[in-house]
Design goal:
With 312 residues, the chain is mostly helical. 74% of the residues lie in helices and 2% in strands. It is built from 13 helices and two strands; from the N terminus they run E-E-H-H-H-H-H-H-H-H-H-H-H-H-H. The chain has a two-stranded antiparallel sheet. Helix 2 packs parallel to helix 12, helix 3 packs across helix 10 and helix 9 runs antiparallel to helix 10. The chain is globular.
C-alpha cells in the first residue's frame, strides 16, 4: 500500500447471478466517501461516552461488535457475497484485531478515566501512525523530514498526555497509545485489502469473523455489568455499532482505496479538531488551552509528513 495506490474495483452482486464489475468511484466521490468516514469517526468518542452511561465497557464493546456484525451479515447475505479467498484471511484477521476488537476495547477502557477531548488529541496521531505502519508494510523509505515530523508529533502528544495526567502517564493514556498501534495496523491492512475487494466486504467479513467472540463476550459481560438504559446510552451504542464500526469503515476504506492513502490521511487531519467540537457541544466538556494547542501542533506535524511522504 503506497501513497500512489489510488484505485480499486468494486463489485455489485446481481441477484441469482455472478458478481458484476462496477465503475471505480471518481476522485470526487472517493473524496466524499473519505469525508463521510472522517465525520463518522469524529463522533465515535462522544458516542462511546454516551454509551458508557448505560453499559459497562466490556458490554459496550461486545454488544457494539455483535450489532455491527449482524448488520454486516445481513448485507452480505442479502447480496449473496461469496466468502473471501483464502489469501485474504490473514489480512482480515489483522483488520478484525485492530479495528473491530482492539481499538474499540482500548479506547472504551480509556474513556472511563479520560475525557473525549483528551482522547481525541492522543489519537490524533493515528494518520501519522498509519503512515509509519504503511511504510513498514511496503518497505518504502520516506524522507528525513517525514521522520522528523513524525517524531515531533509523537513528542507533542506524549508531552500533552504527561502534562494533563499530572506528570506521569495514566492508565487511560496507555490504553490510547495501544489503541493507536492496533488501529494503525488495521487501517493499513484494510486499505491494502480494499484494493482487491470492496471496502464494505473488508469490514463486513472482519466483523463476521469476530461474531462468535462478540456473542460470547456480550453474554458474559452483560451477566456481570449492570445495564441502565437511557436515551444517550441507546443513541451512543447504535451510533458506534452502525456508523462508526460498519458504515464509517466502509466509506473510509472505499474512499481510501479510490483517492489514495496520502490524500485520505490529509482529510483525516480534521478528525481530532471535529471531536473536540463534539466534546464541547454534546458532552459539555471544557477544553483546556493545552488540548487545542496540542491538536493544532499534531495537525501541522502530520501535514509535514504528508508533504514529505509525497516527495519521498
Amino acid at each position: 500500500m503506497t501513497a500512489q495506490d489510488s484505485a480499486t474495483t468494486d463489485t455489485s452482486i446481481a441477484v441469482g447471478g455472478p458478481p458484476l464489475p462496477a465503475p471505480t468511484p471518481s476522485a470526487r466521490s472517493g473524496t466524499l466517501l473519505a469525508v463521510l468516514g472522517v465525520l463518522a469517526f469524529s463522533l465515535t468518542f462522544p458516542s462511546t461516552a454516551w454509551g458508557l452511561e448505560s453499559f459497562g465497557p466490556w458490554s459496550l464493546v461486545a454488544v457494539r461488535s455483535t450489532l455491527a456484525a449482524l448488520l454486516a451479515g445481513g448485507f452480505l447475505l442479502a447480496l449473496r457475497v461469496p466468502a473471501p479467498a483464502r489469501r485474504h484471511w490473514a489480512g482480515l484477521a489483522v483488520v478484525a484485531g485492530g479495528v473491530v476488537v482492539g481499538f474499540p476495547l482500548l479506547t472504551t477502557l480509556a474513556l472511563e478515566t479520560s475525557t473525549s477531548a483528551h482522547a481525541a488529541v492522543v489519537v490524533g496521531l493515528l494518520p501519522l501512525t498509519t503512515a509509519a505502519f504503511a511504510t513498514l508494510r511496503t518497505g518504502r523509505r520516506p524522507s528525513r523530514a517525514f521522520w522528523w515530523a513524525a517524531v515531533a508529533g509523537a513528542a507533542v502528544v506524549l508531552a500533552f498526555a504527561v502534562q494533563q495526567s499530572g506528570g506521569t502517564l495514566s492508565s487511560g493514556d496507555l490504553y490510547l497509545f495501544g489503541a493507536l498501534l492496533v488501529c494503525a495496523a488495521g487501517y493499513t491492512e484494510g486499505g491494502r485489502l480494499a484494493r482487491e475487494m470492496p471496502g464494505w466486504h473488508v469490514i463486513g467479513w472482519a466483523l463476521i469473523g469476530c461474531l462468535p467472540l462478540s456473542v460470547a463476550g456480550a453474554a458474559t459481560a452483560l451477566s456481570f455489568e449492570p445495564v441502565r438504559l437511557s436515551p444517550h446510552g441507546v443513541i451512543g451504542i447504535v451510533w458506534v455499532a452502525s456508523v462508526s464500526t460498519f458504515f464509517g469503515l466502509y466509506v473510509w476504506y472505499r474512499g481510501m482505496a479510490s483517492i489514495g492513502i496520502a490524500r485520505a490521511s490529509q482529510l483525516q487531519l480534521a478528525q481530532p479538531l471535529l471531536t473536540l467540537v463534539w466534546a464541547v457541544l454534546l458532552l459539555g466538556e471544557h477544553l483546556p488551552p493545552a488540548a487545542i494547542a496540542a491538536a493544532l501542533a499534531v495537525l501541522i506535524c502530520i501535514a509535514v509528513t504528508q508533504r514529505a511522504g509525497a516527495r519521498g
